[in-house]
UniProtKB/TrEMBL annotation:
Protein name listed in UniProt: Nitrous-oxide reductase
GO molecular function: copper ion binding; cytochrome-c oxidase activity; oxidoreductase activity
Cell compartment(s), UniProt: Periplasm
Domain Cytochrome oxidase subunit II copper A binding: 319-417
PROSITE patterns: COX2_CUA (PS50857)
EC number(s) per entry: 1.7.99.6
């Protein structure tokens, strides 16, 4: 989000944005400026440039100390060893994104209407030339002009940047709200006819966009063609159903060059704020149809030792401890009647023994607040104390066949007295 890792020429380095170099903590009660104003007083904050490979070397050489079980390289060590550098950036920026060739680092201005583009080569040269001033903690602050390649005025509220296969970059503009397309420079800039480092066009989006995703846009070989604008607000885009308005994903056609971007589809999203997302080619997905073996535990990605096997379904009692071994297959549970005593400690081992694609079953005992979903081959163990006597129906809670409604049984808990 506010950090990105280098790639190709800049691999082994990471870049991150910061704000509040003022070290403001708010405190209007005692006459201090409110936090958001206090944190925005200076014209510049710092992009962090971190030599991750070097940090890993220092860790291996035993230079880290343990603080609450975390291995930490001290500020003194990373300054001395050249792990951390700062570069001034327009104050309170938002995302930082590395271009597909790894040669440039793009900072989206947020409060500043520009994207600021830093050259990795220039950063390396500035470090080699020791062209820096230390900040109050001794961290080298590299000379801004020696590191910057270009600044482009893209519009109001630039937040995040993505890349395509035509040598274009795309920056979300939260306040306008729109997505700006601009031309990269360097090798990538030769892929389009626009002058390097210039604004090419904009497409309005509905409405305030945060993140954007171009197909494979974070990789060294972006796919282009489509961009998804993840808008935080939809306002008037859909029929109102109450105070809560959905977020809105918009599909943008970016296949043509120049100022030609077009919104082609709206999709309301009801679950949480859309954040970082990746679009990858479907043929890169190699999913399983069913788990590799029956008895699979998806959390450990291995077969459970104590899973319920087909043909070996049973109920075992050892004092007050009861182990139930149950299988699920269309459209019944085995066993169907499970009888225990009030106060028994239950371990209920359940296996969906299906080997058919999408043959998911559920196991619900609403009276005991139990509901699990088991994909084909999956096994789970549920542990609880049968502390309420009664007759509790259990049933399948994932639609599985025409006899789904009949896929049920009874859990009988005999009263202690
Ligand atoms: Cu079922």
């Amino acid at each position: 989000d506010l950090f990105d890792s280098g790639k190709l020429v800049s691999e082994g380095w990471i870049f991150g944005n910061s704000f509040n170099t003022e070290l403001a903590t708010g405190g209007v009660e005692t006459g201090a400026p409110p936090f958001e104003a206090g944190a925005s007083q200076r014209d510049n904050d710092y992009m962090h440039v971190i030599n991750l490979d070097k940090a890993a070397e220092l860790f291996k050489a035993g230079r880290a100390e343990k603080i609450k079980d975390f291995s930490v390289l001290s500020l003194e060590t990373i300054i001395e060893e050249g792990v951390l550098y700062f570069i001034p950036e327009p104050k309170s920026p938002h995302g930082v994104d590395v271009t597909p060739d790894g040669a440039y680092i793009v900072v989206s201005g947020k409060l500043d209407p520009h994207v600021t583009i830093y050259s990795f080569d220039k950063i390396m040269k500035t470090i080699a030339d020791k062209n820096w001033e230390p900040d109050q903690f001794g961290v080298p602050v590299l000379d801004f002009d020696s590191c910057v390649e270009a600044q482009i005025e893209v519009g109001l509220g630039p937040l995040h940047t993505q890349f395509d296969n035509q040598g274009y970059a795309y920056t979300s503009l939260f306040l306008e709200p729109s997505v700006a397309r601009w031309a990269l420079g360097g090798e990538a800039g030769k892929k389009n006819s626009e002058p390097d480092w210039t604004l090419v066009g904009k497409v309005p989006v509905q409405y305030n966009v945060g993140h954007i995703a171009v197909a494979e846009g974070d990789t060294v070989s972006p796919d282009g063609k489509y961009l998804v604008s993840m808008n935080k607000w939809a306002i008037d885009r859909f029929a109102p159903v109450g105070p809560l308005v959905p977020q809105n994903f918009q599909l943008v056609d970016i296949d043509n060059s120049g100022d030609t971007m077009k919104v082609i589809y709206d999709m309301p999203i009801g679950m949480g704020e859309p954040h970082y997302a990746q679009i990858i080619k479907a043929d890169k997905l190699k999913p399983w149809d069913v788990y590799p073996e029956v008895g699979w535990n998806p959390e450990t990605q291995s077969v459970r030792l104590d899973y319920a096997r087909q043909g070996k379904e049973r109920i075992e009692r050892d004092g007050k401890n009861v182990d139930i071994y149950m299988t699920l297959v269309r459209s019944h549970f085995k066993p169907e009647h499970v009888e225990v005593n009030e106060g028994d400690h239950i371990r209920w081992h359940i296996t969906n023994v299906e080997r058919a694609y999408d043959a998911t079953h559920g196991f619900a005992v609403p009276g005991y607040n139990i509901n699990v979903s088991l994909e084909p081959g999956e096994a789970q163990t549920i542990e609880f104390v049968a502390d309420e006597p009664g007759v509790y129906p259990f049933y399948c809670s994932e639609f599985c066949s025409a006899l789904h409604l009949e896929m049920m049984g009874y859990f009988l808990v005999k009263p202690a007295e």
